[in-house]
TrEMBL record:
Keyword Transmembrane applies: yes
Name this protein carries in UniProt: Uncharacterized protein
Organism of derivation: Sesamum alatum
Entry superkingdom: Eukaryota
Bilayer-spanning residue ranges: 234-258
PANTHER family, A to Z: MALECTIN-LIKE DOMAIN-CONTAINING PROTEIN (PTHR33512:SF34), PROTEIN, PUTATIVE (DUF1191)-RELATED (PTHR33512)
Signal peptide coordinates: 1-17
Amino acid sequence: MLLPYLCVILCFQGVISQRNTRELDSLLQDYAFRAFVRPRTGIVYDGKVPSNLTGIGVAALRLRSGSLRLRGVSYKEFHIPAGVVEQPYVERLVLVYQNLGNWSSLYYPLPGYTFLAPVLGLLAYDATYLSATNLPELEIEALGDPISITFPDVQSGHSRVPAMCVYFGFNGSVRFNSVVKGNTCLTTSQGHFSIVVESIAAPAPAPRGGGGGRGGAGGGSTSIGGGKWRNKKVWIISCAVIGGAALLVLLALIFAYVKRCRRRKKIQRMEDAAELGVPLPMTRVGYTKVPVALETRTRPLLENEYLP
Protein backbone atom coordinates (compact mmCIF):
# COMPACT_ATOMS: atom_id res chain seq x y z
CA MET A 1 0.00 0.00 0.00
CA LEU A 2 2.90 2.38 0.73
CA LEU A 3 4.81 1.47 -2.44
CA PRO A 4 3.01 3.94 -4.77
CA TYR A 5 3.45 6.76 -2.26
CA LEU A 6 7.17 5.96 -1.90
CA CYS A 7 7.61 5.96 -5.66
CA VAL A 8 6.00 9.40 -5.85
CA ILE A 9 8.44 10.71 -3.23
CA LEU A 10 11.48 9.32 -5.05
CA CYS A 11 10.33 10.72 -8.40
CA PHE A 12 9.37 14.16 -7.05
CA GLN A 13 12.83 15.68 -7.47
CA GLY A 14 13.16 14.25 -10.97
CA VAL A 15 9.78 15.67 -11.99
CA ILE A 16 10.77 19.16 -10.81
CA SER A 17 14.07 18.99 -12.71
CA GLN A 18 12.29 17.75 -15.87
CA ARG A 19 9.79 20.61 -15.69
CA ASN A 20 12.64 23.16 -15.39
CA THR A 21 14.44 21.73 -18.43
CA ARG A 22 11.27 21.83 -20.53
CA GLU A 23 10.74 25.47 -19.57
CA LEU A 24 14.37 26.20 -20.52
CA ASP A 25 13.91 24.51 -23.93
CA SER A 26 10.86 26.65 -24.63
CA LEU A 27 12.69 29.82 -23.58
CA LEU A 28 15.78 29.06 -25.70
CA GLN A 29 13.56 28.25 -28.69
CA ASP A 30 12.09 31.73 -28.42
CA TYR A 31 15.51 33.45 -28.29
CA ALA A 32 16.86 31.27 -31.12
CA PHE A 33 13.94 32.21 -33.40
CA ARG A 34 14.49 35.88 -32.60
CA ALA A 35 17.86 35.65 -34.39
CA PHE A 36 16.03 35.26 -37.73
CA VAL A 37 16.02 38.95 -38.64
CA ARG A 38 16.41 38.24 -42.36
CA PRO A 39 16.17 34.45 -42.45
CA ARG A 40 17.98 32.55 -45.15
CA THR A 41 17.96 28.79 -45.56
CA GLY A 42 21.18 27.01 -44.62
CA ILE A 43 22.68 29.92 -42.61
CA VAL A 44 23.48 29.56 -38.91
CA TYR A 45 22.12 32.42 -36.78
CA ASP A 46 23.54 32.82 -33.26
CA GLY A 47 20.98 34.00 -30.74
CA LYS A 48 21.35 36.11 -27.60
CA VAL A 49 20.07 35.00 -24.22
CA PRO A 50 19.10 37.32 -21.33
CA SER A 51 21.67 38.36 -18.75
CA ASN A 52 20.34 35.95 -16.14
CA LEU A 53 21.34 33.06 -18.45
CA THR A 54 24.82 34.30 -19.31
CA GLY A 55 27.03 31.37 -20.27
CA ILE A 56 24.41 29.56 -22.35
CA GLY A 57 24.84 29.52 -26.13
CA VAL A 58 21.96 29.20 -28.57
CA ALA A 59 21.73 29.17 -32.36
CA ALA A 60 19.19 28.39 -35.09
CA LEU A 61 19.50 26.84 -38.56
CA ARG A 62 16.61 26.69 -41.04
CA LEU A 63 16.65 23.84 -43.57
CA ARG A 64 14.43 22.16 -46.13
CA SER A 65 13.35 18.70 -45.04
CA GLY A 66 14.31 17.19 -48.40
CA SER A 67 17.77 18.74 -48.30
CA LEU A 68 18.38 17.45 -44.78
CA ARG A 69 17.25 13.95 -45.72
CA LEU A 70 19.32 13.79 -48.94
CA ARG A 71 22.53 15.59 -47.99
CA GLY A 72 22.68 16.02 -44.22
CA VAL A 73 24.45 18.95 -42.57
CA SER A 74 27.30 19.82 -40.19
CA TYR A 75 26.02 22.16 -37.49
CA LYS A 76 28.28 23.33 -34.65
CA GLU A 77 29.42 20.16 -32.80
CA PHE A 78 26.76 18.04 -34.53
CA HIS A 79 27.30 16.16 -37.78
CA ILE A 80 23.96 15.03 -39.22
CA PRO A 81 24.35 12.48 -42.02
CA ALA A 82 21.99 11.86 -44.90
CA GLY A 83 18.92 9.79 -44.12
CA VAL A 84 17.52 11.81 -41.22
CA VAL A 85 13.74 12.22 -41.28
CA GLU A 86 11.33 14.12 -39.05
CA GLN A 87 7.89 13.28 -37.66
CA PRO A 88 5.48 14.80 -38.40
CA TYR A 89 6.64 15.87 -41.83
CA VAL A 90 7.12 19.59 -42.50
CA GLU A 91 8.41 21.37 -45.58
CA ARG A 92 10.97 23.41 -43.62
CA LEU A 93 12.34 22.91 -40.14
CA VAL A 94 14.57 24.79 -37.71
CA LEU A 95 17.35 23.05 -35.78
CA VAL A 96 17.92 24.83 -32.46
CA TYR A 97 21.36 24.35 -30.94
CA GLN A 98 21.99 24.64 -27.19
CA ASN A 99 25.24 24.83 -25.23
CA LEU A 100 24.43 25.00 -21.52
CA GLY A 101 28.03 25.66 -20.47
CA ASN A 102 28.39 26.03 -16.71
CA TRP A 103 24.61 25.62 -16.29
CA SER A 104 24.81 21.95 -17.32
CA SER A 105 24.86 20.36 -13.87
CA LEU A 106 22.13 22.73 -12.64
CA TYR A 107 19.53 21.79 -15.25
CA TYR A 108 20.71 18.20 -15.73
CA PRO A 109 21.95 17.00 -12.33
CA LEU A 110 23.52 13.55 -12.40
CA PRO A 111 24.41 12.39 -8.86
CA GLY A 112 27.50 10.21 -8.71
CA TYR A 113 28.93 11.55 -11.99
CA THR A 114 31.14 14.47 -13.03
CA PHE A 115 30.63 16.37 -16.28
CA LEU A 116 33.73 16.43 -18.49
CA ALA A 117 32.00 18.54 -21.19
CA PRO A 118 29.03 20.91 -21.30
CA VAL A 119 25.56 19.63 -22.13
CA LEU A 120 24.79 20.17 -25.83
CA GLY A 121 21.25 20.11 -27.16
CA LEU A 122 19.78 19.68 -30.63
CA LEU A 123 16.01 20.20 -31.04
CA ALA A 124 13.94 20.40 -34.23
CA TYR A 125 10.92 22.69 -34.73
CA ASP A 126 8.50 23.56 -37.50
CA ALA A 127 9.74 26.60 -39.48
CA THR A 128 6.33 27.69 -40.76
CA TYR A 129 5.94 30.52 -38.22
CA LEU A 130 9.28 31.94 -37.11
CA SER A 131 7.59 34.28 -34.63
CA ALA A 132 5.81 31.48 -32.77
CA THR A 133 6.67 30.51 -29.20
CA ASN A 134 6.12 27.37 -27.12
CA LEU A 135 6.34 25.20 -30.22
CA PRO A 136 6.31 21.41 -29.81
CA GLU A 137 9.46 19.60 -30.89
CA LEU A 138 9.57 17.48 -33.99
CA GLU A 139 10.90 13.95 -33.69
CA ILE A 140 13.96 13.41 -35.88
CA GLU A 141 15.46 9.98 -36.45
CA ALA A 142 18.58 8.83 -38.28
CA LEU A 143 17.60 5.88 -40.46
CA GLY A 144 21.14 5.22 -41.72
CA ASP A 145 24.36 6.38 -40.09
CA PRO A 146 23.98 7.87 -36.59
CA ILE A 147 24.29 11.54 -35.71
CA SER A 148 27.70 12.31 -34.18
CA ILE A 149 28.50 14.94 -31.55
CA THR A 150 32.16 15.94 -31.27
CA PHE A 151 33.05 17.74 -28.02
CA PRO A 152 36.09 19.98 -28.64
CA ASP A 153 37.17 20.54 -25.02
CA VAL A 154 36.82 17.44 -22.88
CA GLN A 155 38.32 17.59 -19.40
CA SER A 156 40.52 14.76 -18.22
CA GLY A 157 38.78 12.25 -15.98
CA HIS A 158 39.95 9.50 -13.68
CA SER A 159 42.41 7.10 -15.23
CA ARG A 160 40.74 4.16 -13.49
CA VAL A 161 37.20 5.03 -14.65
CA PRO A 162 36.39 5.34 -18.39
CA ALA A 163 34.40 8.33 -19.64
CA MET A 164 30.89 7.72 -20.97
CA CYS A 165 28.44 9.51 -23.22
CA VAL A 166 25.16 10.42 -21.53
CA TYR A 167 21.84 11.09 -23.25
CA PHE A 168 19.00 12.99 -21.51
CA GLY A 169 15.56 12.24 -22.95
CA PHE A 170 12.54 14.55 -22.91
CA ASN A 171 10.71 12.24 -20.51
CA GLY A 172 13.48 12.40 -17.90
CA SER A 173 15.21 9.20 -19.00
CA VAL A 174 19.00 8.91 -18.89
CA ARG A 175 21.05 6.55 -21.08
CA PHE A 176 24.77 5.89 -21.20
CA ASN A 177 26.95 4.85 -24.14
CA SER A 178 30.61 4.47 -24.97
CA VAL A 179 32.73 7.41 -26.11
CA VAL A 180 34.09 7.13 -29.65
CA LYS A 181 37.59 8.45 -30.48
CA GLY A 182 37.93 10.04 -27.06
CA ASN A 183 35.49 12.94 -27.58
CA THR A 184 32.62 11.82 -29.84
CA CYS A 185 29.14 10.52 -28.98
CA LEU A 186 26.66 8.86 -31.33
CA THR A 187 22.87 9.09 -31.35
CA THR A 188 19.94 8.37 -33.63
CA SER A 189 17.57 11.03 -32.27
CA GLN A 190 17.53 14.57 -30.90
CA GLY A 191 17.97 15.52 -27.27
CA HIS A 192 20.72 16.66 -24.88
CA PHE A 193 24.15 15.06 -24.67
CA SER A 194 27.38 15.28 -22.70
CA ILE A 195 30.41 13.27 -21.57
CA VAL A 196 30.62 12.25 -17.91
CA VAL A 197 32.75 10.10 -15.66
CA GLU A 198 31.69 8.26 -12.54
CA SER A 199 32.81 10.03 -9.38
CA ILE A 200 35.13 8.17 -7.03
CA ALA A 201 34.78 8.94 -3.33
CA ALA A 202 37.89 9.22 -1.19
CA PRO A 203 38.58 6.04 0.87
CA ALA A 204 37.55 6.24 4.51
CA PRO A 205 40.40 6.29 7.11
CA ALA A 206 41.33 2.97 8.69
CA PRO A 207 39.90 2.32 12.20
CA ARG A 208 42.23 3.10 15.07
CA GLY A 209 43.60 0.33 17.24
CA GLY A 210 42.04 -2.40 15.14
CA GLY A 211 45.15 -4.56 14.83
CA GLY A 212 43.82 -7.33 17.06
CA GLY A 213 40.38 -7.62 15.53
CA ARG A 214 39.11 -10.80 13.96
CA GLY A 215 39.68 -11.07 10.24
CA GLY A 216 43.13 -9.42 10.15
CA ALA A 217 43.70 -7.09 7.19
CA GLY A 218 40.31 -7.86 5.71
CA GLY A 219 38.60 -6.09 8.62
CA GLY A 220 39.63 -2.65 7.39
CA SER A 221 37.73 -2.69 4.05
CA THR A 222 35.61 0.36 3.25
CA SER A 223 32.68 0.95 0.95
CA ILE A 224 32.58 3.73 -1.63
CA GLY A 225 29.93 6.34 -1.00
CA GLY A 226 28.58 4.56 2.10
CA GLY A 227 27.86 7.80 3.97
CA LYS A 228 25.81 9.24 1.13
CA TRP A 229 23.82 6.03 0.81
CA ARG A 230 23.11 5.94 4.54
CA ASN A 231 21.87 9.54 4.51
CA LYS A 232 19.72 8.82 1.48
CA LYS A 233 18.37 5.67 3.11
CA VAL A 234 17.44 7.56 6.29
CA TRP A 235 15.70 10.23 4.20
CA ILE A 236 13.74 7.62 2.25
CA ILE A 237 12.66 5.79 5.42
CA SER A 238 11.59 9.06 7.10
CA CYS A 239 9.52 10.12 4.10
CA ALA A 240 7.98 6.65 3.89
CA VAL A 241 6.98 6.71 7.58
CA ILE A 242 5.44 10.18 7.33
CA GLY A 243 3.68 9.30 4.10
CA GLY A 244 2.40 6.04 5.59
CA ALA A 245 0.98 7.81 8.62
CA ALA A 246 -0.78 10.36 6.44
CA LEU A 247 -2.13 7.59 4.24
CA LEU A 248 -3.49 5.68 7.24
CA VAL A 249 -5.26 8.80 8.54
CA LEU A 250 -6.79 9.34 5.11
CA LEU A 251 -7.98 5.73 4.94
CA ALA A 252 -9.51 6.00 8.43
CA LEU A 253 -11.48 9.10 7.41
CA ILE A 254 -12.69 7.40 4.25
CA PHE A 255 -13.76 4.31 6.24
CA ALA A 256 -15.69 6.45 8.75
CA TYR A 257 -17.42 8.33 5.96
CA VAL A 258 -18.43 5.13 4.16
CA LYS A 259 -19.74 3.63 7.40
CA ARG A 260 -21.81 6.74 8.10
CA CYS A 261 -23.27 6.70 4.61
CA ARG A 262 -24.24 3.03 4.93
CA ARG A 263 -25.96 3.74 8.27
CA ARG A 264 -27.94 6.59 6.72
CA LYS A 265 -29.04 4.36 3.85
CA LYS A 266 -30.16 1.63 6.27
CA ILE A 267 -32.28 4.08 8.26
CA GLN A 268 -33.78 5.41 5.03
CA ARG A 269 -34.76 1.88 3.97
CA MET A 270 -36.40 1.27 7.37
CA GLU A 271 -38.36 4.50 7.04
CA ASP A 272 -39.51 3.58 3.53
CA ALA A 273 -40.64 0.14 4.70
CA ALA A 274 -42.57 1.66 7.61
CA GLU A 275 -44.39 4.07 5.35
CA LEU A 276 -45.64 1.20 3.18
CA GLY A 277 -47.58 -0.35 6.14
CA VAL A 278 -50.39 1.14 8.23
CA PRO A 279 -50.16 4.91 7.88
CA LEU A 280 -49.40 6.47 11.22
CA PRO A 281 -48.54 9.99 12.21
CA MET A 282 -44.79 10.64 12.24
CA THR A 283 -42.78 12.69 14.67
CA ARG A 284 -39.06 13.47 14.92
CA VAL A 285 -37.02 12.12 17.82
CA GLY A 286 -33.48 13.43 17.64
CA TYR A 287 -32.34 12.97 14.02
CA THR A 288 -34.85 10.17 13.26
CA LYS A 289 -38.58 10.19 12.32
CA VAL A 290 -40.68 7.56 14.15
CA PRO A 291 -44.44 6.71 14.00
CA VAL A 292 -46.66 7.56 16.97
CA ALA A 293 -50.26 6.71 17.95
CA LEU A 294 -52.24 9.70 19.17
CA GLU A 295 -55.28 7.66 20.34
CA THR A 296 -56.18 4.05 21.07
CA ARG A 297 -57.64 1.87 18.32
CA THR A 298 -60.29 -0.01 20.50
CA ARG A 299 -62.38 1.35 23.29
CA PRO A 300 -61.93 -0.34 26.72
CA LEU A 301 -64.71 -2.60 28.13
CA LEU A 302 -65.64 -2.89 31.79
CA GLU A 303 -65.22 -6.31 33.40
CA ASN A 304 -68.59 -6.07 35.23
CA GLU A 305 -71.45 -4.90 32.99
CA TYR A 306 -73.97 -4.60 35.90
CA LEU A 307 -72.22 -1.71 37.53
CA PRO A 308 -74.11 1.51 37.14
